[in-house]
Write a structure and sequence with these properties.
300 residues, three-stranded antiparallel beta sheet, globular
Length: 300
């Protein structure tokens, strides 16, 4: 009789997944954990896992004001040290957050997680591929001269077509809560346009003399095609949000470098409330490249 070979597990245990999700997003609520990570598990199981992590001093929480006691969970310093060993966090700095820091960042961070949850729910309904680790918050790329463009998130999504095919998408996600001026929001398109054309090999005479394994724009080092850019808006009334979308469209037509970007990169904007109500794949997206009418984000 032969002894069976040991087969190592291919997935993290339940508590490690919860810890990884908190590290991935910096801060999450129990409901968001349930929606994005483990919708097939009972909420009581998540609560027990969170309490175990807090007892082990790996996580802590702060209570949202005027929320009937809703807790927002985040990593402690000890949790940040522990999370470095998880595979999905190997290239991510797991920042610990103090109670004061959590209070300052809570609103924006949780709104970004809401956007992720909208995509996760649609993917689950459609049978598409978009898991908890296909959404990376706060992705930064250099623009030269010490400047960077920082996306609220980078999303990976595989869409299953009606003919049985699979279409792979990548997108930079910008979540706007109407806390900055409409002009400043639209200027974010200039940063992406600069990244689209930025070639570090021609940025300085010194670098031009060095051989390189991959010539061309910097984005080719990370992406086979430049990710589409999706603006998700909330935090204001319908008229104000419509004006912000109008200003995004105006930037595309008025700025020559942004116009160059728009000729090849899909650009879209939608309200978070529409996505949560109708689903991310609904015709809820405004094309910023001039086409009229609403459409799904995959048809921008």
């Amino acid at each position: 009789m032969t002894t069976p070979h040991f087969v190592p597990p291919t997935t993290e245990d339940f508590t490690s997944q919860v810890l990884g999700m908190i590290a991935q997003h910096r801060m999450v609520t129990l409901q968001q954990l349930h929606t994005v990570l483990l919708p097939d598990r009972r909420r009581e199981n998540l609560s027990r896992a969170l309490n175990r992590l807090r007892t082990a001093q790996l996580t802590d929480y702060t209570v949202l004001p005027a929320s009937h006691g809703t807790r927002v969970w985040y990593l402690t310093e000890r949790g940040a040290d522990t999370i470095r060993h998880l595979p999905q966090m190997q290239d991510r700095p797991p920042y610990p957050i103090t109670t004061a820091g959590a209070s300052l960042r809570t609103a924006h961070t949780l709104t970004v997680v809401r956007a992720h949850a909208a995509f996760a729910q649609t993917a689950r309904t459609r049978g598409d591929e978009h898991g908890p680790w296909d959404w990376t918050p706060e992705v930064a790329h250099h623009l030269g001269d010490g400047e960077r463009v920082i996306a609220d998130a980078l999303m990976y999504y595989t869409h299953h077509t009606a003919t049985g095919g699979r279409a792979k998408y990548r997108a930079f996600i910008e979540v706007d809560r109407a806390t900055m001026s409409s002009e400043r929001l639209a200027c974010k398109l200039i940063e992406y346009a600069r990244f689209y054309t930025y070639d570090p090999q021609t940025a300085s005479a010194q670098r031009r003399t060095r051989p390189t394994a991959l010539a061309g724009p910097a984005w080719l080092r990370w992406y086979p095609a430049f990710p589409r850019i999706l603006f998700i808006l909330t935090g204001a009334g319908p008229t104000a949000l419509a004006n912000r979308i109008h200003d995004l469209k105006a930037m595309v037509t008025e700025h020559p470098t942004v116009a160059t970007l728009a000729r090849t990169v899909p650009l879209g904007a939608a309200t978070l409330e529409d996505l949560e109500t109708h689903g991310v794949d609904a015709p809820a997206w405004h094309c910023l490249r001039g086409q009229q009418g609403l459409r799904p984000w995959t048809a921008l």
